[in-house]
Specification:
Number of strands: 15
Helix content: 25-40%
Strand order of the largest sheet: 3-2-1-14-13-12-11-10-9
Structural class: alpha+beta
CATH superfamily: DD-peptidase/beta-lactamase superfamily
Number of helices: 12
CATH class: Alpha Beta
Strand content: 15-25%
Shape: globular
CATH topology: Beta-lactamase
């Protein structure tokens, strides 16, 4: 495993990484690699450092929404138009909470499909985005397909789910994710934290952006080959990508997601039934806030992600017999589906002979 990690780090110019592999009956492999801070002598990576887990945040948001359905505060069939702030968003009277959860709303992704938004966000990474500003951008987007008639991964949908969470509870999304997810599992170091203060309050890894990998026309403040994104805020991602966690917490969380331990039987079924194919080959599917891959040894449930400076992956078999968590402190590309941590995780799956042939 060590050689696979080192090769990925060399190939993708990754300064530092944390890897955890747990296999029931065969022990565990947890190891830190490289540097958490580049320059000035560097700072060695350790396995207890805080991390921006990026789009793995969606598993928290989805889990919280499904628990709120259990609490009868919202329904999977509620329309977006039920919430007054949705006025002006295309097809709000047809898009349901379920469609936001499984990326079938038809909305494009502000993060990857809207060059004007990308230019503003990356060009001014210290800008603190408000709900009104994100909604204003959302109103400029033209749907890619009618609601429920296709699949397109979109961070905007998960931002809207955060707003729904706040509307139906009267609490902040930060409070609800803490109550419904982190506190219930004892995740002592896990928070939805859009500003960098929490990340920096404990041992953490800095995060780096490879400037050469940014989309054409996108200028990011920085010099040389990389920009240090540790101090940037994640307000534009919020409930789509702003959770901060660490390796041990993510093992516990990933296993909970895989087993549905926080959900009622009805919500466990809803999360996994009729998943949407993410690719033509039918090798990966998306349920309600979780990726699903069928393996000979069981069903692999996972999520990955990337935000400026950080790439992440967390997955577990449904029976919790195998769990893999990977953190890397670089975002080699803006498209989070190309997260470098995922490339390594798939290699580790192969090494364990668990991946579907």
């Amino acid at each position: 495993m060590t050689s696979a990690v080192q090769k990925i780090m060399r190939d993708y110019k990754v300064p530092g990484a944390i890897v955890g592999v747990w296999q029931k009956g065969k022990g565990e492999y947890t190891k830190a690699f490289g540097e958490a801070q580049v320059g000035g002598g560097g700072k060695p990576m350790t396995t207890d450092m805080l991390w921006r887990i990026a789009s793995i945040t969606k598993t928290f948001t989805a889990n919280a929404i499904l628990q709120l359905v259990d609490e009868k505060k919202v329904s999977l069939n509620d329309k977006l138009s039920k919430f007054s702030w949705s006025a002006g968003l295309a097809n709000a009277d047809q898009i349901t909470v379920r469609m936001l959860l499984n990326h079938t709303s038809g909305y494009p992704d502000l993060e990857n499909d809207a060059p004007g938004f990308q230019k503003e966000r990356f060009g001014n990474p210290n800008k603190v985005w408000t709900h009104d500003e994100i909604l204003a951008w959302g109103r400029t987007l033209q749907p890619l397909f009618p609601p429920g008639q296709g699949y397109h991964y979109t961070n905007l949908g998960y931002y809207l789910l955060g707003m729904i969470m706040e509307s139906v509870t009267g609490k902040t999304a930060e409070q609800e994710i803490q109550r419904l997810c982190a506190d219930r599992l004892g995740l002592a170091d896990t928070r939805l934290a859009v500003m960098p203060a929490y990340l920096r309050s404990k041992p953490h890894s800095d995060g780096y952006v490879l400037l050469s990998e940014m989309p054409p026309g996108i200028t990011v403040p920085g010099s040389g080959e990389v920009a240090n994104a540790t101090g940037w805020n994640i307000t534009a991602a919020w409930t789509a990508g702003a959770v901060v966690s660490k390796l041990s917490d993510m093992k516990t969380w990933s296993e909970s997601v895989a087993s549905g331990s926080l959900l009622s039987q009805a919500m466990r079924k809803a999360q996994l039934e009729d998943p949407i194919a993410e690719d033509e080959a039918g090798t990966s599917y998306y349920g309600l806030g979780v990726n699903i891959m069928k393996l000979p040894s069981g069903e692999w449930r996972w999520h990955n992600g990337a935000v400026p400076g950080y790439s992440s992956f967390a997955g577990s078999l449904s029976d919790k017999s195998v769990t893999i968590v990977v953190f890397m402190n670089v975002m080699p590309a803006a498209n989070q589906e190309n997260a470098v941590a995922t490339k390594l995780a798939l290699e580790l799956l192969n090494a364990l002979q668990l991946k579907k042939p």
